[in-house]
Write a structure and sequence with these properties.
Helix content is 40%, strand content 16%. By secondary structure, the chain is α/β, with parallel strands linked by helices. The protein has a 5-stranded parallel β-sheet with strand order 2-1-3-4-5, sandwiched between helices.
C-alpha cells in the first residue's frame, strides 16, 4: 500500500484547451493519484496572466504577481511535483520558463541572497517528474539530442533548488500515436499517478 502524498501537477502547455494531449495526460495522472488516495492540486500555466521578469532587481526585490501566489503555495505544500509540457523548438515553451522564473524567487526556491551552488536548498525533500511530449521519436531526442532541455530543467532548475529524485517520461511521435497509442499513454500516466512517482 502506497502512503498518501501531496502532489502538485503543473500543466505547462501555453494553450489551456482541454483538447491538448498534455491536458489529457495531466487528467489521467490526477485520476490515478486521486483514486489511490493522494491529495492533488493542479495548475494550468496557460490559464494564468502574469508579466515577464525583465531585470535582476525585479527577480530579487519585486513582488510575486498575485496570480502566481497559488503556485508558490502549491509548491510549498507539495511532496511531489509533476511538470508536463510539449517540446517547442527543442525546449520548454517560453511561458512555462517565465512561470518558473517568477515562482522560483529568492527567499522561496533559493536562499534570500540568491542562488548558491552548495548548502541547504529551500525545496529539499520533494521529488519530481517531468513529462514531455514531442513530435520526434523519444529515442532520437534522448540519444541524438541528449535530452538537453529536460536535463537542463532537472539539473539547473529542479535539482538546483532541492528536488530529488527527479524522473522523466518522454512521449515521442505524438502526431502518429493514434487512439491506441494515446490510450496506452493515458493508462501509463494513470499508473504513475497511483504510484505518485
Amino acid at each position: 500500500m502506497t502512503t498518501s502524498r501531496r502532489i502538485l501537477l503543473i500543466e505547462g502547455h501555453p494553450d489551456p484547451s482541454a483538447e491538448r494531449l498534455n491536458h489529457a495526460l495531466v487528467t489521467a495522472y490526477a485520476d490515478g493519484a486521486t483514486a489511490a488516495g493522494h491529495e492533488v492540486r493542479r495548475i494550468a500555466v496557460g490559464a494564468l496572466e502574469f508579466p515577464l521578469l525583465k531585470t535582476a532587481d525585479a527577480w530579487h526585490h519585486g513582488a510575486l504577481p498575485p496570480a502566481l501566489q497559488p503556485a508558490q503555495d502549491g509548491m510549498a505544500w507539495a511532496e511531489h511535483v509533476v511538470i508536463f509540457f510539449p517540446l517547442w523548438l527543442g525546449d520548454m515553451p517560453a511561458l512555462l520558463k517565465a512561470f518558473l522564473e517568477q515562482v522560483a524567487r529568492p527567499g522561496f526556491a533559493v536562499g534570500p541572497e540568491g542562488p548558491k551552488p552548495f548548502g541547504r536548498k529551500p525545496l529539499s525533500g520533494r521529488s519530481a517528474r517531468v513529462v514531455v511530449t514531442m513530435g520526434m521519436p523519444a529515442l532520437a531526442y534522448r540519444w541524438y539530442f541528449r535530452a538537453h532541455s529536460v536535463k537542463s530543467l532537472e539539473r539547473n532548475i529542479l535539482g538546483f533548488v532541492g528536488f530529488a529524485p527527479i524522473h522523466e517520461t518522454l512521449i515521442g511521435s505524438v502526431e502518429n500515436l493514434g487512439a491506441t497509442g494515446v490510450a496506452r499513454w493515458l493508462k501509463k500516466l494513470k499508473q504513475l499517478g497511483e504510484q505518485s512517482t
